[in-house]
Amino acid sequence: MNSSINNPDALQYFPILTGDENQMIFTRRFKGSQNEDLYIARRTGSWHEAKKLEGAINGPEGEGTATITADGNTLICSYCGDGRENMGNCDLYYSTLENGSWSKLKNLGTTVNTKHYEAQPTLSSDGR
């Protein structure tokens, strides 16, 4: 990938594609920082510059390692930090796309999260 995606001052990892393969969401952490944020790049022929996800997903602590439903409307990611309701070290959260912006992250609850470390979510093609 070219410099519209890869930033030499940051680490980029855990990329995922939407079902139509025209959007890529990935985790970016700038060198010297522990804060991870989710970024998105769109493709119309070629990939456009990656930008932070719009909405209420990224905050001052670590959001990262995401997965997205095939329709591109629900995102699940890990969050590690103290700024949100947490059940453990890292929990899984979800957000929905509403009017072109991502909603505030919501904890997936005790069905998924425990006092232990939950991260690196994935979804099957049917969203389960």
Could you tell me the strand content as a percent range? 35-45%
Rg, alpha carbons: 14 Å
Instruction: Give unreliable regions as ranges.
Output: none
Please write the string of helix (H) and strand (E) elements. EEEEEEEEEE
Q: Give the overall form.
A: globular
Mean pLDDT: 89
Biggest sheet details: 5 strands, antiparallel
Number of helices: 0
- Give the CA-CA distance, first to last residue: 30 Å
Question: SS-based structural class?
Answer: mainly beta
The amount of helix comes to: under 10%
Report on this model:
With 128 residues, this protein is an all-beta fold. It has strands at 10-17, 23-30, 37-44, 46-47, 51-52, 62-68, 74-80, 90-98, 101-102, 106-107. Strand 3 (37-44) and strand 4 (46-47) form a beta hairpin. The radius of gyration is 14 Å and the shape is globular. The N and C termini lie far apart (30 Å).
Q: Which key features would you list for this structure?
A:
5-stranded antiparallel sheet, about 130 residues, mainly beta, about 45% strand
